[in-house]
Please model this.
Amino acid sequence: MKRSDRLVSLTRYFLEHPKEHMSLPYFSDKYDAAKSSISEDLSIVDRVMQKEGIGYLQTLPGASGGVSFIPEFSRERSHQFIDELCHTLEDSSRILPGGYLYMSDILGDPKMVNQIGHVLASTFSNLDIDVVMTVATKGIPLAYATAAVLNVPVVIVRRDPKVTEGSSVSINYVSGSSRKIQTMVLPKRSLTDNANVCIIDDFMKAGGTINGMVSLLDEFNAKVQAIGVLAEADDEEDERVVENYTSLVKITHVDIKEKTIEVRHGNVT
Model:
């Protein structure tokens, strides 16, 4: 195989297998090429990936060494996307009765969701994460997009138990905004003991739902490694019950009468 062909094939492999460790002999056998040639190829792929701001190749020396692709959007690329996201959300036609914002089109756009997943996953790429968790239903596409980049499975918390999922653990929690008692359920088979979990959600106001998921994870002896949300509300009336989290955008003000929306970057670095 020509070097140009190998470079394309290697790039495709790493993009499809993020954070998956693979030895150099594997690639040497796969492409019937010398290890020295593969090493040169990997250097080229790594340089271009970093230049494009999509991640880098992490190499481990030694007999058990190898290489893995760490997906990580550059700061510039992430901020550029968040700028576009803020502009999209500031469209006055999104205002719904009660001051809510219409966001279903964003959550239904595969390209947009994929970008959101990449930005969130980039923030958590260096963490030890075993599974991504979300609550049904709007957070599901974001969870899958993030999990695809981190190369881990997705666990979905539901409001009601499903007979097809076997025995479940349920808890009652207080919604942060409405202060209502609600229930969430997670099948016992969903998580192993001491699992490292990344929680993903589409919107956070006071954080009651996310706090409920954290409490539910305590029942599984799981550890919350990260919390990521697409958007958070900047509402001084509601006391935030979640402290350590990452948000892409913050909705600072919605004026129903003037039909204006103010959106700025969240706390993502």
In short: The beta strands are 55-60, 66-71, 131-135, 154-157, 168-174, 181-187, 196-204, 223-233, 246-255, 260-265. The domain at 3-71 is CATH 1.10.10.10 (Arc Repressor Mutant, subunit A). The chain has eight helices and ten strands. The chain has two domains: 3-71, 75-265.
